[in-house]
Amino acid sequence: MDTEKSSSNIVRVEGVRKVYHDNGVPVDALRGINLTVSPGDFSVIAGPSGSGKTTLLNIVGTLDKPTEGKVFLDGEDIASKTRRQLADIRLRKIGFVFQAYNLNPVLSALENVEFTMMLRGVEAAERKRKGLALLEELGIGELAHKRPNEMSGGQQQRVAIARAISNDPRLVLADEPTANLDSETAVRLLELMERLNHHDGITFVFSSHDPQVIGRAHRLLILKDGQIATDKIVQ
Prior knowledge:
Layout: H1 3-6, E1 11-22, E2 25-37, E3 42-46, H2 53-60, E4 68-73, E5 76-77, H3 83-93, E6 94-97, H4 109-119, H5 124-137, H6 153-165, E7 171-175, H7 183-200, E8 203-207, H8 211-215, E9 219-224, E10 227-233
Parallel strand pairs: 3-8, 3-9, 6-7, 7-8
Antiparallel strand pairs: 1-2, 1-4, 4-5, 9-10
């Protein structure tokens, strides 16, 4: 594929197939996925449980490798990278928001946000300044020194978002980000993500079956049996 052509998209997925084995029996989680994600997209990948949503997100985010096919991020073929190179790409270009938050339980909110910046070699004073600013922007500055077990689910998810955007990623991948939240908290978080998309130009790709998330999508992709059944612009 032409690298110049792919570089106009943040993500380009070509013919991706993912096969798992269940007690020795091959199971197709993804079957021939073709997909592009453009800068500024606010996209939702929807579909029933087992349709391949999380698998696709993990492959785009370099957490998993396809059995067949190619994945390009900013024009680079990430499927051919080494584990160390993939870790560097995740650190520099991708932010993750997981359903289970994945915060380090022994670190404070601020320390969780600072962690990825520390991996990039950002100086301590700048890490602290930026981490506190992000927590303030997300309305949880007063929780900077609290640990995850001292926060509500919505507060932990805000910390996870602050951590995800702390390295100024090109792309944020959010796997069922509202699954463990009440409706009011979910709405506030979605409004926050929309604001980050509009004001800061961060590209978001969600996997979700939550109608609240789907209703805010600018682009909706529906997976069925490991294939894209629908791909449409909705607003």
